[in-house]
Amino acid sequence: MSIAAKRSLQLNDQGQLRHFLSLDGLPRELLTEILDTADSFLEVGARAVKKVPLLRGKTVCNVFFENSTRTRTTFELAAQRLSADVISLNVSTSSTSKGETLFDTLRNLEAMAADIFVVRHADSGAAHFIAEHVCPDLAIINGGDGRHAHPTQGMLDMLTIRRHKGGFENLSVAIVGDVLHSRVARSNMLALKTLGCPDIRVIGPKTLLPVGIEQYGVRVFTDLAAGLKDVDVVIMLRLQRERMQGGLLPSEGEFYRLYGLTEQRLTLARPDAIVMHPGPINRGVEIESAVADGAHSVILNQVTYGIAVRMAVLSMAMSGQTAQRQINQQTEEQL
Amino acid sequence: MRTHILGARLIDPASGHDGVADLYLEDGRIKAIGAAPAGFDAEHRIDAHGLVAAPGLVDLSVALREPGYSRKGSIASETLAAAAGGVTSLCCPPLTRPVLDTPAVAELILDRAREAGHCKVFPIGALTKNLAGEQLAELVALRDAGCVAFGNGLTNFPSNRNLRRALEYAATFDLTVVLHSQDADLAEGGLAHEGPTASFLGLPGIPESAETVALARNLLLVEQSGVRAHFSQLTSARGAQMIGEAQARGLPVTADVALYQLILTDEALAEFSSLYHVQPPLRTAADRAGLREALKSGVISAISSHHQPHEADAKLAPFGATEPGISSVELLLPLALTLVQDSLLDLPTLIARLSNGPAAALRLPAGSLRVGAAADLVLFDPAASTLAGEAWRSRGANCPFLGHALPGAVRYTLVDGHVCYQA
Q1: How far A126 CA lies from chain B's nearest CA (Å)?
Q2: Residue A280, CA distances (Å) to A68, A286, A296, B343 in order
Q3: Chain A residues lying within 8 Å of B271, measured CB to CB
Q4: Which of A159, B24, B209, B314 counts the highest number of beta carbons within 10 A?
Q5: Which positions are annotated as binding L-aspartate (chain A) (predicted)?
């Protein structure tokens, strides 16, 4: 029941994307369509004139209740390359400090005739709330909600893997570090499972692994060396400094000694393994500089692919939302 | 006034009575059961053929929201909702504004409840000033003003030493304390039961140990102080088991469970619906099974609504920014009857957990239909059904059961022999 309900929130009556909230419940064909569309947009990025007119006349509003540089900038570029008008707001520093609620902030922006909201918020489920209760007729794109989901990051990671590894069918992928607090890890686990990756591993100390993580169909390792053995892809997660407080970890030094990715440890993986990181990286905390900047690293490619994936999601959601409006109008006329 | 209730199936768990019998009420009390007293000339007759007559329900936790939170509910609106749910006696928790830590607040609540006249209200006083866990409230003065027990809600004592002293002081005067056992430190920042559902949704978890650690400490301090204690709002199977073990070694403690904990599990959160945001949280199917078992065996002797009405805005935000609580006292009887419908309890046992069980836990003058007792009763049709929300009296519409067809329908609620609710 839950999957059906979630699908109906994200998809229109014809099964097309109209919001992009979470990868949960999205079928493999749809994820593949996002990747294929993003692939085609990568060519746009390589051209001298980088624009296509898909969202001409539309307004994309980036509403970030949490700080971000990379995600916000790549969403801005993606929207601009689709010829949309773009506004970006850091709401954490404006309306909410005046006591305006999330509900009112977004309703006001909607009244300014926005078509798409890209929202990042510290509360898990914020994007669902907006799509369900605040602006159901706009295309809502989740730019990260609490620990829950970061679906465009998940899809850009999948695009990176597909472009470098050709597919998912025979891969071993390891996700390393602070899985507990990571919306990136959750979205990646769901995407890898849906796309048919047979061996997903998570590696970290018990204090950074969520209870019941087995539900994602992953293998859990607390030892980095064992978990890295013969993997094709290593996804490192960012470790926030505040994890040292509250007893989750003794120190950055001990974390690096046990879970930091060094050149030496990377030799345990397959010789052609790729190293990924959602950024921003902490050199010497979760990853050695020599690895981050080395031959196996595809960290900067991820950023480039991120624009293409966001173009794909923005254009697909807008088109699905527009189609739904037409369906609704026809239904009303028939009544 | 003299009232004759004809032909109801009378279920009184306190006396073990279960059978069709007429009831005769006079001057607010039960005058006779079965045969009419000599010369009884009824002014009012209720034809109750096909209905069940049971003691009016006793609900140990109904937030009336007054004083201080009138946008969420009022004494008049919430006691009327309670009467519609079959309740004739309820306890209201001390989390008002100002906190119920002075006799003046208790008197205000009792005055307004009397004025509204929908059901009897028994306030639970704050154990400490402003629920801060530092300075004791004037417990004896509060008792004299009408408080039947004392609690600190979900607010923890900052020091175990203060808690121990509060329990000892209460024991001195044979006062009952109501303990909500959730360790605030282990629960810090938590929004949902720590388990696969919360992990999947990225909601910070509240581990089962938040309940069991606090419960273990509270049970030991209760034992040492000798205070009368009631454990409220259990959520875990392990917690219920700990209460059972304490009772087995002779500790006279009682416990209640929120009705919604017997029906829902944490899986209800899957869509981030804030209607299921409650504190302490919904737990697993195994916990629900353990709670149901403890309810059946009597380890848990009371079902409470833990009614918490809210204005719409309180639930209109991302899950973590919403206020916890469910408005459900209005559905207490039909919702509880789902437990009978699902063959988890028989009807007399269910009624016991909703009437004399809770009444005995806090020593309330309620919950029985013996001759001479107050004529507080509910008449309901077990064969009819209630469409939840078809009529709604509570100011809080934050109820996930709205729209559901529930078994049974309350027809009359009588308090002191007066019909205070009629469908």
Answers
A1: 5
A2: 10, 11, 18, 56
A3: 2, 5-6, 128
A4: A159
A5: 98, 183, 238
Model pLDDT for residues A105-143, shown as the tens digit of each residue: 889 888 988 999 999 999 999 999 999 999 999 999 999
Contacts of B232 (CB under 8 A, 6+ apart): B60, B61, B151, B178, B179, B180, B255, B256, B304
- Work out the percent of chain A whose per-residue pLDDT is above 90: 79
Domain coordinates in residue numbering, chain A: 19-149+304-328, 151-298
Domain A19-149+304-328 has CATH 3.40.50.880: no
Looking at the DSSP bridge assignments, the partners of residue B3 are: B25, B44
Phi, psi of B331 (to 5 degrees): -110, 15
Q: Residue ranges per domain, chain B? A: 3-52+374-422, 56-361
**pLDDT: which is higher, A241 or B167:** B167
- Partner-chain residue, chosen from B199, B202, B320, that has the shortest CB–CB distance to A183: B202
What is the per-residue pLDDT across B48-96, written as a single tens digit (0 to 9) for each? 999 999 999 999 999 999 999 999 999 999 999 999 999 999 999 999 9
Contacts of A101 in chain B (CB under 8 A): 313, 317
Residue A334 has pLDDT above 90, yes or no: no
Question: Which parts of A are annotated binding residues for L-aspartate?
Answer: 98, 183, 238
- The top-level CATH class assigned to A151-298 is alpha beta
User: Could you tell me the pLDDT band of residue B392, with boundaries at 50, 70 and 90?
Assistant: very high
Does residue B408 belong to the interface with chain A, where contact is any CB pair within 8 Å?
no
A19-149+304-328 and A151-298 have identical folds: yes
Closest CA relative to residue B367, chosen from B84, B86, B42: B86
Interface predicted TM-score (ipTM) of this complex, two decimals: 0.93
User: What is B3-52+374-422's CATH number?
Assistant: 2.30.40.10
* Shortest CA gap A74–chain B (Å): 24
